Amino acid sequence: MPEQNVPPTIFHMLEKNLGKQIRVILDPSYGFEGTLAAITREPAGIWLSEAEAVILRATIAQPIPQVAGREERSEIFVHLNSVQRIEVLHPPSRR
Protein backbone atom coordinates (compact mmCIF):
# COMPACT_ATOMS: atom_id res chain seq x y z
CA MET A 1 0.00 0.00 0.00
CA PRO A 2 1.51 3.41 -0.93
CA GLU A 3 2.35 5.88 1.84
CA GLN A 4 -0.24 8.57 2.37
CA ASN A 5 1.15 12.04 2.91
CA VAL A 6 -0.43 13.81 5.82
CA PRO A 7 -1.07 17.47 5.02
CA PRO A 8 0.97 19.81 7.22
CA THR A 9 -0.83 21.40 10.11
CA ILE A 10 -0.37 24.94 11.36
CA PHE A 11 1.94 23.52 14.03
CA HIS A 12 4.23 21.95 11.40
CA MET A 13 4.32 25.23 9.48
CA LEU A 14 5.11 27.22 12.62
CA GLU A 15 7.85 24.79 13.70
CA LYS A 16 9.65 25.44 10.41
CA ASN A 17 9.85 29.13 11.36
CA LEU A 18 11.15 28.82 14.93
CA GLY A 19 13.72 31.53 15.58
CA LYS A 20 12.51 33.75 12.74
CA GLN A 21 10.95 37.21 12.98
CA ILE A 22 7.17 37.09 12.53
CA ARG A 23 4.22 39.49 12.61
CA VAL A 24 1.01 38.22 14.20
CA ILE A 25 -2.11 40.16 13.20
CA LEU A 26 -4.94 40.03 15.76
CA ASP A 27 -7.30 42.45 14.03
CA PRO A 28 -6.96 44.76 10.99
CA SER A 29 -5.24 47.47 13.03
CA TYR A 30 -3.32 45.67 15.80
CA GLY A 31 -0.76 42.92 16.16
CA PHE A 32 2.65 41.89 17.44
CA GLU A 33 6.12 41.46 15.94
CA GLY A 34 8.86 39.36 17.47
CA THR A 35 10.99 36.26 17.30
CA LEU A 36 9.04 32.99 17.29
CA ALA A 37 10.40 31.34 20.44
CA ALA A 38 8.03 28.42 21.12
CA ILE A 39 4.82 26.75 20.02
CA THR A 40 2.33 25.10 22.39
CA ARG A 41 -0.54 22.76 21.57
CA GLU A 42 -2.43 22.97 24.87
CA PRO A 43 -3.41 25.78 24.86
CA ALA A 44 -2.78 26.31 21.15
CA GLY A 45 -0.53 29.32 20.93
CA ILE A 46 2.86 30.82 20.24
CA TRP A 47 5.46 32.58 22.36
CA LEU A 48 7.20 35.64 20.97
CA SER A 49 10.43 36.96 22.41
CA GLU A 50 11.76 40.49 21.87
CA ALA A 51 8.17 41.38 21.01
CA GLU A 52 6.67 44.70 20.01
CA ALA A 53 3.02 45.65 19.82
CA VAL A 54 2.33 47.22 16.42
CA ILE A 55 -0.47 49.47 15.24
CA LEU A 56 -1.34 49.06 11.56
CA ARG A 57 -2.92 51.66 9.30
CA ALA A 58 -4.31 51.39 5.79
CA THR A 59 -5.66 54.19 3.60
CA ILE A 60 -7.47 54.35 0.30
CA ALA A 61 -4.21 55.40 -1.38
CA GLN A 62 -2.22 52.67 0.45
CA PRO A 63 -4.60 49.70 0.98
CA ILE A 64 -1.90 47.32 2.29
CA PRO A 65 -1.62 47.92 6.07
CA GLN A 66 1.64 49.56 7.14
CA VAL A 67 3.10 49.74 10.66
CA ALA A 68 2.17 53.17 12.07
CA GLY A 69 3.36 52.73 15.65
CA ARG A 70 5.29 50.38 17.93
CA GLU A 71 5.37 49.72 21.66
CA GLU A 72 8.06 47.54 23.17
CA ARG A 73 7.12 44.35 25.01
CA SER A 74 9.45 41.62 26.26
CA GLU A 75 7.87 38.18 25.86
CA ILE A 76 4.27 37.50 25.01
CA PHE A 77 1.97 34.49 24.54
CA VAL A 78 -0.59 34.74 21.73
CA HIS A 79 -3.46 32.23 21.65
CA LEU A 80 -4.05 30.96 18.10
CA ASN A 81 -7.83 31.44 18.44
CA SER A 82 -7.31 35.21 18.38
CA VAL A 83 -4.95 35.29 15.37
CA GLN A 84 -6.17 36.45 11.95
CA ARG A 85 -2.88 36.19 10.08
CA ILE A 86 0.78 35.28 10.65
CA GLU A 87 3.49 36.77 8.43
CA VAL A 88 7.14 35.70 8.34
CA LEU A 89 9.32 38.81 8.10
CA HIS A 90 12.40 38.51 5.92
CA PRO A 91 15.41 40.77 6.38
CA PRO A 92 15.81 43.36 3.62
CA SER A 93 17.90 42.05 0.74
CA ARG A 94 21.19 43.77 -0.05
CA ARG A 95 21.63 45.03 -3.58
Describe the 3D structure:
The chain is mainly beta and 95 residues long. It is 7% helix and 51% strand. It has one helix spanning 10-16; strands spanning 21-27, 30-41, 44-57, 66-72, 76-79, 85-88. Strands 1, 2, 3, 4, 5 and 6 form a six-stranded antiparallel β-sheet that branches. The longest helix has 7 residues, at 10-16. It is globular, with a radius of gyration of 15 Å. It starts with 9 loop residues before the first helix and ends in a 7-residue tail after the last strand. The model has no long low-confidence stretch (mean pLDDT 89).
How would the blueprint of this fold be written?
Elements: H1 10-16, E1 21-27, E2 30-41, E3 44-57, E4 66-72, E5 76-79, E6 85-88
Antiparallel strand pairs: 1-2, 1-6, 2-3, 3-4, 3-5
> How many angstroms does the end-to-end distance come to?
50 Å
The pLDDT mean sits at 89
Principal-axis shape? globular
Number of DSSP strands? 6
The percent of residues in helical segments reads under 10%
Tally of alpha and pi helices: 1
Secondary-structure element series: HEEEEEE
Unreliable spans are none
Radius of gyration computed on alpha carbons: 15 Å
User: What would you call the structural class?
Assistant: mainly beta
Proportion of residues in β-strands? over 45%
Sheet having the most strands: 6 strands, antiparallel
